[in-house]
Design a protein that fits this description.
Layout lengths: L5 H10 L22 H16 L6 H6 L3 E3 L7 H4 L10 H19 L6 H22 L2 E2 L15 E2 L1 H20 L20 H17 L8 H10 L12 E3 L12 H6 L14 E3 L1 H9 L5 H4 L49 E4 L1 H13 L7 H15 L4 H8 L14 H12 L5 H11 L26 H6 L1 H7 L15
Antiparallel strand pairs: 1-5, 2-3, 4-6
Length: 503
């Protein structure tokens, strides 16, 4: 990992000024990182983070491999994706930027030395845990204990064991929750302009930390011998609660209907004048598995995730569609991703709407699984129904629409009728997180094999029967931190599983 120098820190702070009303550095020395207060570092870090996590180009492989998206037949098909031929350069950009953001969060922690600033210290700890969890889920062993020590002279950080990282993240999240619970009466106010995710609501920060903690623990639920550890860890902060309906972790620094200042997911597909970006709005189309699953379940979200290609007709392609098995549909006979100018509730959304870090419905799906597994005392059916309902609301539909959907006599929808409740929860979660949380979709499949009906790719020349289970270390790491990369051992994209994948 290259040295994260001071100019890079300052540039990240300034990057946040693209949504600039909350960011002013007139009273700080831009040449001194120690002079930058956490109030200015936080909005830039959150904004940059959501631009990484919500940019579909960083995680397109998940949507394409898992049946939710396809590539328009009007374009050359991406051979590397269709055949699972990942390189060390594949999807490596997020790796470096996530570590840069982590360094800025470390600066928040350093700046929050006064007990009055404990809220900012806690937020820095929570968001670093979020970053590290995603890094582990994509790359396995990664720099952690020495990762943010460049200013202390550690320019080539060692790679830590992924399981040990996960376990330490639980410790850090518990500590952050304790800081929030013990804030002094004269604590520094966390303003809405600084906290562009929860508007200074520290109770929601505690719930978010606990929800992230639950996600980390549930990821390990398929591992033998982990149940006692998981239950014990959950019990320590059970009284905090989790993100519920209407409490999603959504970032909005003041997105504007202006190019380079819009919602990061929207901006990949459309300009501020609603002109389609040809390499995105005309490139990514509906996946056949996603369309057919929603249609088979009379799911009204079908017309929100995707657009009819004609009248009320929807269709999608498989990735690497084999014309001898399933003739590929031309663009005029297949569905684009959901979009309607100036109207929220479609997949692509609007220029100014908030961008998700962890939605309320993802939180509810995680809670439903935890309750089903007996890790928590909640009612899994109630939590599952609430997750579906909040997904419907997110997609511009109503509670009544959700109730009608859930009331169908279909075991693929109705919790009471489902013979395998876990399959129901995770399959509907897969459908609901389309365009929202790609890393979680990928993680759920790798740890559970659900949904079992995904076609992945039909390309006859694919390198493996199933897609890769991890990304390869970036070429830059191999170039500048090679000894520590080599110390991890030989990495194979198909067999070097993340530690929680035991199947």
């Amino acid at each position: 990992m290259n040295k994260i120098i001071l100019t890079l820190l300052v540039s990240l702070v300034l990057l946040g000024s693209s949504c600039s009303k909350f960011l002013s550095v007139n009273e700080v020395n831009p040449n001194s990182a120690s002079a930058v207060p956490p109030q200015l570092l936080l909005p830039a870090a959150l904004t940059t983070l959501v631009k990484v996590m919500d940019n579909p180009r960083n995680f397109e492989f998940v949507y394409l491999w898992h049946g939710l998206w396809s590539i328009s037949q009007g374009y050359s098909q991406p051979t590397s994706l269709m055949q699972y031929r990942l390189l060390n350069s594949s999807y490596s950009g997020a790796f470096s930027v996530l570590y840069t953001i982590g360094q800025n969060l470390t600066e928040i922690e350093k700046a929050a030395k006064d007990p009055k600033d404990a809220g900012y210290l806690a937020i820095g700890m929570i968001m670093k845990a979020y970053i590290m969890q995603n890094l582990v889920d994509c790359w396995g062993n990664v720099p952690y204990s020495e990762a943010f020590s460049a200013t202390d002279g550690v320019l080539k950080p060692k790679y830590d064991d992924q399981k040990a990282i996960y376990e330490d993240l639980i410790v850090k999240l518990d500590a952050a929750i304790a800081l929030i619970e013990g804030l002094p009466v004269d604590a520094t106010e966390i303003s809405g302009t600084s906290d562009v995710m929860f508007g200074g609501n520290v109770a929601l920060w505690a719930k978010f930390a606990n929800t992230l903690k639950l996600r980390i623990l549930v990821h390990q639920s398929g591992m033998a011998g982990r149940e006692t550890y998981i239950k014990g860890a959950i019990a320590k902060t059970a009284g905090i609660g989790y993100l519920g309906a209407g409490e999603g972790a959504m970032v909005n620094p003041g997105f504007l209907e202006s190019d380079s200042k819009m919602n990061p997911f929207y901006e990949v597909f459309y300009t501020a004048s609603a002109t389609g970006q040809s390499d995105a709005s005309g490139y990514y189309f509906a996946g056949k598995d996603g369309v057919e699953f929603l249609a088979a379940n009379n799911d009204p979200r079908l017309g929100r995730f995707y657009l009819p290609y004609s009248g009320s007709s929807f269709a999608g392609n498989y990735l690497g569609q084999n014309p001898d098995v399933h003739p590929a549909l031309v663009p005029s006979a297949s569905s684009k991703l959901g979009y309607k100018a100036d109207e929220a509730g479609y997949m692509i959304g609007t220029p100014t709407e908030s961008a998700p870090i962890l939605t309320d419905f993802e939180s509810l799906f995680i809670q439903a699984e935890a309750a089903f597994r007996g890790f928590t005392t909640g009612d899994p059916k109630t939590l599952y129904d609430a997750a579906i309902t909040q997904s419907f609301i997110h997609m511009g539909l109503s509670e009544g629409d959700a109730a009608t959907f859930l009331g169908q006599q279909k075991y693929t929808v109705n919790y009471d009728l489902a013979p395998d409740k876990l399959v129901l929860i995770l399959t509907q979660k897969w459908a609901s997180l389309n365009g929202v949380a790609p890393v979680e979709i990928w993680t759920d499949f790798r740890r559970s094999g659900i949904p079992s009906f995904i076609h992945f790719t039909e390309d006859a020349n694919k390198a493996n029967e199933k897609p890769p289970v991890r990304l390869l270390y970036p070429q830059r790491e191999i170039s500048v931190n090679n000894d520590n990369v080599v110390a991890v051992g030989v990495i194979d994209a198909f067999s070097s599983k993340i530690f929680w994948q035991n199947r």
